[in-house]
Amino acid sequence: MEPFVYQIGLGEDDERLDKWISGTLPDLSRSYIQKCIKEQAVLINGKPQKASYRLRVEDEIVFDVPEAVEPNIEAEDILLSILYEDEDVLVVDKPKGMVVHPAPGHYSGTLVNAVMYHCKDRLSGINGVMRPGIVHRIDRDTTGSLLVCKNDHAHNSIAEQLKEHTITRKYRAIVHGVITLDAGTVDAPIGRDPKERKKMAVTNINGKTAVTHYTVLQRFRDYTYIECQLETGRTHQIRVHMASIGHPLLGDEVYSSIRAPYHLEGQTLHAMTLGFIHPVTREYVEVTAPLPEYFEHLLHIL
Fold it and tell me: Measuring CA to CA, which residue among 267, 275, 276, 271 is closest to residue 290?
């Protein structure tokens, strides 16, 4: 691919480098552009600069856009439960135990392997060879709605909606203890746990804004069935937030020290409703994933 070359003119100066490129080359995500700048694929007057660099009149931008790399992971014929599909996006109902994208120890049997087979070569490539089509994720043991993008335009549109917190994301969960309030909000920053780097935590040290709204659906003797709506989408957000207020998720072996009396595989958390503005039609699309059988059975027992 030929390098992108441009000279800044009057009225185009005093804008951040990454923001200017994002507006000029809308098919590339802001995070991808920042990655390219960090790897010195972007030069200003022959020199690398930071993403925050303020452009000046007559600055020459040379962006050597990396060639797209073919995924080196294999497509696998794995049955998908499809909730919605068109030429631009795909929404699947992810089962418990399935990893979203390949990573050390999980190079096969992932959702990516499955969607590569289903979509063939129609997946966005913005997030690289390991995450084609993936614009957001849910944990391995969390079930429910997950959106996959079939092209870069759709990917950028959905990524922007995620950034602006305009996507509807409603989860169902069962937590330890009886929540007395009918509804509430947890507004607490989430970042890497300073003591255990593999865990997330409510922390002011490296935490980012995180907001979870919850509503009580049903109370049991020792548990509460709730709906959580995400305003932000931090890693393990619902699990961390509910644990932080003394109501960890039933079955959560990472953020709860309470042993579950039921045979469960990880936390009882289900991504039930996903709503977004379609990247092409601009119409609102909302998809609901039914509660999985194990979840229904557990509610019946309780």
Answer: 271
Handedness of CA 249, 253, 255, 257 (dihedral sign): positive
Name the band, by pLDDT with cuts 50, 70 and 90, for residue 131. confident
| Active site annotation includes 139 | yes
Please give the structure tokens belonging to residue 260. Answer: 């579950």
User: What is the reported pLDDT for 66?
Assistant: 77
Other Cβ atoms closer than 10 A to 9: 10
- Look over the chain and give the mean of its residue pLDDT values, rounded to a whole number: 91
| CB hemisphere CA count around 149 (13 angstroms) | 27
Q: Considering all CA atoms of the chain, what is the largest pairwise distance in Å, rounded to the nearest integer? A: 70
Of 18, 139, 152, 252, the catalytic one is 139
Cα–Cα distance measured from residue 9 to residue 30, given in angstroms and rounded to the nearest whole number: 22
**Number of residues in the chain:** 302
Kindly state the tokens that stand for 154: 């759709």
b/e 156-188 (16+ beta carbons within 10 angstroms → b): bbbbbbbeeeebebbbbbbbbbebeeeeeebeb
Report how far residue 270's alpha carbon sits from residue 253's, in angstroms, rounded to the nearest whole number.
Answer: 16
